Amino acid sequence: MFVNEIIPEADKRQHSFEENSGFYISQPSQWTVDRSRGMFLIHRLSYSPGGAQNVRFWAFYWGGKVFDVKVENISSETDAEGVLHAKTRLVSIDRRPALEWASSEMLNDLKEALSVYGVAGIFHPVKSFQLQLLIEDGGNTSHGVLH
C-alpha cells in the first residue's frame, strides 16, 4: 500500500537523491512509497516560467529501476461532497509512449501511486481524491483510461 511520507535520510542516501544530480531539480523531501512492494514515486520537476503550466515530471521506482514519467494535468474539480476529481494524461515513460511497452501492472501501480500522492502528497492532504489517468499512445488519441 502506498503512503505519503517524509523521506528518511537513510533512504535518501540509498537512492542517491542529490540536489543538482541532473535528474532531481532539488533534493526531494517527500515521497509516495510502498515499502512492501519496493516502489516509490517522487515529484521531480513541475511548472517552469515560460514552460507548460500543466506538465509535471516524476521519478517512479518500479521493478528495480527508476523511470522518468511525464504527465499532463487536464482538469480538476471538487464536487459537493468535497471529493477532488482530477483528469491526467500519461504522456510518456522514459520519453516513450507508455502503451508501446509498459505493462498493465506497471501502469496500474503508477496510477495507484499518483492517486495516493493526490495534490501535493504529505504537504497538502485532501479529504478524498479520485484520479482518471488517460494513457497517451504516441499520437493525439488517448486510450487505456484507468479509473
Explain what the structure shows.
The protein has an eight-stranded mixed sheet with strand order 1-2-3-4-5-6-7-8, with helices on one face. Helices cover 14% and strands 43% of the residues. It has one domain (3-146). With 147 residues, it is mostly beta strands.
Give the helix/strand layout:
Elements lengths: L2 E4 L2 H6 L15 E5 L4 E7 L9 E8 L2 E14 L4 E11 L10 H14 L10 E9 L5 E5 L1
Parallel strand pairs: 6-7
Antiparallel strand pairs: 1-2, 2-3, 3-4, 4-5, 5-6, 7-8
Descriptive keywords:
disordered C terminus, 147 residues, single chain, mainly beta, globular
Radius of gyration: 15 Å
Distance between the termini: 17 Å
How many structural units, i.e. domains? 1
Shape field: globular
Structural class of the helix and strand makeup? mainly beta
Main β-sheet description: 8 strands, mixed
Order of helices and strands: EHEEEEEHEE
Q: Count of helices?
A: 2
The low-pLDDT segments are 140-147
User: How much beta, percentage-wise?
Assistant: 35-45%
Assembly state (oligomeric): single chain
Number of strands: 8
Q: Order of strands side by side in the largest beta sheet?
A: 1-2-3-4-5-6-7-8
Helix proportion of residues, in percent? 10-25%
Q: Average pLDDT, to the nearest integer?
A: 81
Summarize the entry for a quick read:
With 147 residues, the protein is mainly beta. It contains two helices and eight strands; from the N terminus they run E-H-E-E-E-E-E-H-E-E.
